[in-house]
Structure formats: C-alpha cells, structure tokens
Amino acid sequence: MSETLDRRKAEAHAAEVMSSILRAAGSWAREAPPALTPAIKAVCIRLAEMVADQRHYLAPLPEPQQAERQAALSLVAEELRSPEVTADIATDLQSLADLELRATGSWSLVSTAQAEWITTAIQFLESKAAGLPEGERPDPYWADDVVAGVIASVRAIVGVDELHARTESEFPMSDRLTDLEDDDFEEDGRPL
C-alpha cells in the first residue's frame, strides 16, 4: 500500500511541477509578441526537460524523499517529451535541437555546457525575433532576459536552487577547494 501511495505522491508532485512549468512558459511568452510564443515555450520546455533529466546528479535526499523525487522528475521528463506537450511546438523544438548539443547529463555537471546552451537558446530566440517585421520585434536583449528568467523559473519549480543550497550547507565549498590559494577567494570566503 505504501508503494502505491508513494507512486501517487510522485504523480501528484509531477503533475504540480508540469503545471507550474507550463504556466511559467506562458508567463514568459506574454512578455513578447504572440508570434514568439511557440519559440519561448520550446525554450522553457527543453530547459525543464534538461533540468528534470539531471535528477541523477542532484544532491541526494533522505529516503523516502529521494525515491519520490526521482520518480516525480522521471515522470516530468517523460511528460515534457509527450505529444500532448510538444505537439504545437514540435517545429520549434526541432529547430532548437538542431542548434544544441543534446547532452543533458553533461549539462547538469559541466558549466561550459550550461553556458553553451544559454547562448544557443538566446541565439534561437533572437533568430525567431529577427523574422518578425521590424515594428513588432522585441527590445534588444529581450532574449537574454527571457532565457535568464526561464532558467530561474524552471530551476525554482524543480527545486534545484534549494538542493544546491542544501548541498553547500552539508559540503561547504571550502572543503572541496583545498588546493586553491587564499587570493582565489573573495573577502567573504566565496570563490572568485
């Protein structure tokens, strides 16, 4: 019975996360011309899929929360790839996929892969905006703002920031960076 209850709990959590991700995509799309809505939704959905796929790399939680989180994020990643979610943005998702390195595992661990994806997402949105008539194009740097906002929204929805904070409190950065010199840190102890 508890196994069924855990599955239901994971499914409920996954449904809540999915709903929040789709609301975030819609919210960020409202800030731009309607013609850019599918492209913004594609960026949000793809990023959410990548974050959900990094479930294997997140700091572990105590059981049974760990099993529930993994099950919920597996369901979220699956749902984000489903035709119900991707049907109206399939062309934009494919265009984005053609530009990006599809290595979600490295994305979660390698900061250069994250930076490359951010650059790719910005360029993707800028190229979509460039196709609009001049009077309908968003302000300069709008794509940077949208991508930064989408990243913050998705990470908060999935709970990555809270998990990072928990990891840092359990395994302080200073314990992991023993071979750095004193001048590699800010005055407050943060790494440069």
Number of helices: 10
- Overall shape: it is elongated
**Can you summarize the main beta sheet?**
none
Poorly predicted runs are 173-180
Report the strand count: 0
Descriptive report:
By secondary structure, the chain is mainly α. It has one domain. 70% of the residues lie in helices and 0% in strands. Helix 1 runs antiparallel to helix 8 and helix 2 crosses helix 5. The longest helix has 29 residues.
What can be said about this structure in brief?
The chain is mainly alpha-helical. It contains 10 helices and no strands.
Topology:
Layout: H1 2-30, H2 37-53, H3 65-80, H4 83-86, H5 90-99, H6 104-109, H7 111-130, H8 142-158, H9 160-170, H10 173-176
Helix pairs in contact: 1-2, 1-3, 1-8, 2-3, 2-5, 2-8, 7-8
Keywords:
10 helices; mainly alpha; single chain; 192 residues; elongated
